[in-house]
Amino acid sequence: MMKEIIRKAKQFALLLLVISFVGCENDDAELPKVIAGFTYTLNENTGTVTFINVSENASDFEWAFGDGDSSEEINPIKTYQTGEYTVSLTASNGAGGEDTFEDTISIQIPLEIQFPIAFDNPLVAFDATTFGGVAFEVVENPDLSGSNAVASNVGQITNSGATFEGFFFELGEDLDLATQQTISVNFWSEVPVDVLLKLEQGSGPDAEVVASHGGTGWEIITFTFTSTDAFSQVTFFVDGLGTTAGTFFIDDITQIDTINNGMIEDCGGDLINDFETSDDSIFNNFGGGVGTIIDNDETSINSSAKLGQYVKNDGEVFGGITIGLDSNIDFNAGTFSIDVRSSSVRQLLFKLEGLGIEKILPTSGEAWETITYDFSDVAGNMGEITGITLIMDNGTAGDGSSDWTIQFDNIRLCSNGDTGGDTGSIENCGGDLVNDFETADDSIFSNFGGGVGTIIDNPDTSVNMSAKLAQYVKGSGEVFAGITVGLNANIAFNAGTFSIDVKSSAVRQLLFKLEGLGIEKILPTSGAGWETITYDFADVAGNMGDVTGITLIMDNGTAGDGSDAWTIQFDNIRLCSNGDGGGMPFDDGLLVNGDFQTLDTNGNVTEWIQGVDDSNPAPVSTEGDNVFYSINVTSPTPGQPFNINVSQKTEIINGETYILAFDAWSDVNRTIVAGIGLSGGDFANNSETVSITTARTRYELTLLANGFGAPDARVLFDLAEEAGVVNIDDVSLFIDSGSGGGGGGGGTGDCPAPPAGDFIADGDFEANSSCWALFDNGGSTSISSTVSNGGGTRSGQITSATGANPGIKQERFGIGTVMPNTTYIVSFDIKADASDPLADGAILNAFMFSEPADGSNDPAVQHVLVQADGAVSTNWETRTYTFTTAGNVGGGVSFLLELVCGGAATCGGTINIDNVSMTAQ
């Protein structure tokens, strides 16, 4: 045994000697290199990442997960919130080797479905559970009209025709009816249909309500429940127990304030008519509708002695009434209310005659109620209302019974324009944009006293469509916590007005201070959604100087708590007016005294000359401190042009394009000639006939100096009609600096380049090219070779019919030349066919779209030029509009004009469009 131990010891000693010898001969040998690395698997529904360590020659590991957490595990498991995270792994061994590997992980956890449901959030999987044969998918809105004329995603429902087929959503957050029992839904159908909404999986019994759709495309339908429970499942049945097959669309499923059934409410506005002293002569009945004044037979809720009553007769689909007014109503995007009583649910159309805009809301069919029609989304439809039209279930035949009878009372103008009653609307005051925060970052904010300003992504674009917003939070315990918004440049200011769009969840007294001048105003927010607040500094005249920043403070002197209740989101700060004039300081360009403010010692307007004798005209009217010029139309030679006019001499350069802009209004609707030309020469080729209305309106004309030029040429306004008055103000003339170019629009091939200074190709339709895309959509569209408004023989032609929305479009033009956040002018000539005028609900819509670049995640942004206009003249008229592009126009812009009809069997009409242009402002 001992010998064996000695033998092994000798062997061990010999081994040590060999190792020692080898070690001495290889002092520079390298140790195995450490290589760090990992892969991972991701559970997209939970954000849970399982890391798989693939490092080599390492024994120790240090993980940094990119959110402040770390680990020393070999294969850790980590759960993230939505976001991007840079993860690093440092691997090492005991011999001192070390290596680091990094990778970026993007986490997008699908959000659960919750109210409001609008189908536009890419992080929400709008997976509906279907049953009974129905199919559901999310698609782009196929019909930009009616109550949903916005490019967005919508839900498409395809009924197979089976009994009781439907679909439901499981909600991530319960729908609580404790305070709001009404659900509003944007729904599309081309046939009248009932929709049943059932609320299930709740804290109480299931609840269901049926709403009727009129079959006229996009309509708002509402479901008012009596339950006050909370529910986690919403189920829809289109046609309930019926077997109606077809395709339907749904959008904007929203919980709203409960319709106030059985109550008569005074919105606090001006009473238009309470029918106490009216007689039947105030009604203009049409299509089988009959309006009368009746005695009130039940005064327990509505105590009026007299009421209005409207009956839709048997078999009539378009039977309505128009209520005459004592005098026209000056109106701009406000709200009306009307008290109604009906025994059945009726979709009651409320139309403002003279403006051609309308809304449809349901009656409850249960008792007296006050319905409020909000026209805040049609800002720009400023003008006079000449009457109010009511139509029940437009497109559905009545039967003259009590089910087709509505009693009504107390029509009120609750709000008008920007003043009150307009919570939740975003309005553009028409002034210069100070900041829309689309390209800003947090560095623009100077925070003080515990206030924090940041730039955030807009989480809800249903009202305010901006991609970015500013947010201000008042911190916990802070009484003087505010923010100051920096400016790109100081603003020269004198006693004007600013506006700001704000959204708050609580009523807050919002201080708005002009730094540099030390003046401030405090106005309350509504606490009920987006609204535009206007701060009027007109009473602080004399505070002229530079505004260096704008400070906001919520409830100055009251401590905040940093919660949602002490958070305001805001956007679109605008300088609406400055000094005594409307809008920014007036710039008359190449003219002098374009606002008629400068008078000589005799009180006459300087620079401007009157008529053929070049006499100096005298002003006859003012608006506050603003002088404007009135031309009395008393031509010595009626019908002879260029005898009754006002003009100013200025240099005109041959071949240049000019923008002539001016305000005008008249005692009656009439036409005038406006243009440029030689003194004593021909203006015919360089002027336009402009239709002037009784409402003060801004007109902008693009005029080419065609074949003439002279240092003593003129800008001229001429009237050669019957006696009367036309008022002219704020006249400016600029050489058009638009760069033009940028592609031809909707087609390729033989589509020519746009004219110099223009962005739209073939605007006069004379090229007979592929520039224009034509969409029949139930009607018909064509390039007419027989109708034109000068300069050729062609025009675009659209004919509509029941349920149709034909249109013409140029798509994605001006790529690379149209600038973001820039105002452009769109103009076109239009007329209705005298043998086929717009009838029975046919309306004109015109839109521009800011198109994002290919591959962008940004949606196209719609700009409304005109919407729901049913009053297109049978004579050629020039329509001119402005719009401001969105922040992303990498894909250029698109122009769409359509003629939309509802469900009325007699709805239709034909229009022609010519001389379409888009130019820089």
From TrEMBL:
It comes from the Bacteria. Keywords: Hydrolase. It holds the Pfam family CBM_4_9. Gene3D superfamilies: Galactose-binding domain-like, Immunoglobulins. The keyword Kinase does not apply. Residues 61-114 form the PKD domain. Coiled coil: none annotated. The keyword Transcription regulation does not apply. This is Carbohydrate binding domain-containing protein. It comes from Winogradskyella maritima.
